[in-house]
Amino acid sequence: xxxxxxxxxxxxxxxxxxxxxxxxxxxxxxxxxxxxxxxxxxxxxxxxxxxxxxxxxxxxxxxxxxxxxxxxxxxxxxxxxxxxxxxxxxxxxxxxxxxxxxxxxxxxxxxxxxxxxxxxxxxxxxxxxxxxxxxxxxxxxxxxxxxxxxxxxxxxxxxxxxxxxxxxxxxxxxxxxxxxxxxxxxxxxxxxxxxxxxxxxxxxxxxxxxxxxxxxxxxxxxxxxxxxxxxxxxxxxxxxxxxxxxxxxxxxxxxxxxxxxxxxxxxxxxxxxxxxxxxxxxxxxxxxxxxxxxxxxxxxxxxxxxxxxxxxxxxxxxxxxxxxxxxxxxxxxxxxxxxxxxxxxxx
Length: 347
Ligand SMILES: *Cc1c(COP(=O)(O)O)cnc(C)c1O
Prior knowledge:
With 347 residues, the chain is α/β, with parallel strands linked by helices. It is built from 12 helices and 13 strands. α7 links the parallel β6 and β7 (201-206).
């Protein structure tokens, strides 16, 4: 037997969404990837970076990326950090704020990777449930844990919490409130203004979904400079390679292309939601690039299997609170038309 730490020996490990080998043979709507390519400026920037320059280490602080994001969001660069995917930030927030045996919490259902990261750290995990009107169940007047992760918009359900509720939470969380805004670019609101007002609020973002850069691994966080200083101590000193840094700057600067893609996805989301309802699916109005849909009869696994046979990949969660529905990422209009046709045929 290996002399592993007990929590590592015990843990199961996170299982990401299925990535098929012959990607092009599928309509892939299971991991909330963007159906559109990254900005042509991103491709150019990466090409320009390829070559003998790769011999040298990248800028350890990713300053150009921080500056581009700071300008975009209206903060000074000391309020920002770039990361190798926002998953890196979630991990480092736990490492910075929750010691072994201390508690973190999140909403169930939301992004269960927080629990995996906490297990690695040896932190305890508490979950708060949701009512039918998307309120947290049994949230105390003051939550004494070290970190509370709020996924907003909620994934996989797609609804958003009102900003007033998040502000109220900021005052009730004794530790840090992390608002995971992986999908905020597809929504109408975000919590960036709360970062300025509350020292314990951190907003995390990713370029994986709204900027079509899941394969590049780029995330960022906005928080008070003292929080950023702590996160800078913990990260790998060269956490972003040269290609990723160049891609981040080019992507964040091409807002025109970004708005066009996000706009198309929002439009398709509205169309697809309507079509699902025509087929008698229950659909939660979504602010993300996915919808959570419940088939008539609630046998979501049957629909998942029937779509799978037709090479359409969506996400089914066996978790009892989610097993009645499917999370379907929003692809191109054409992909969603094919999906609607397949669902109509499956019945
Ligand atoms: C996709 C996702 C992430 C991870 O983003 P990366 O930048 O790709 O690591 C984090 N949180 C939620 C809720 C997500 O859906």
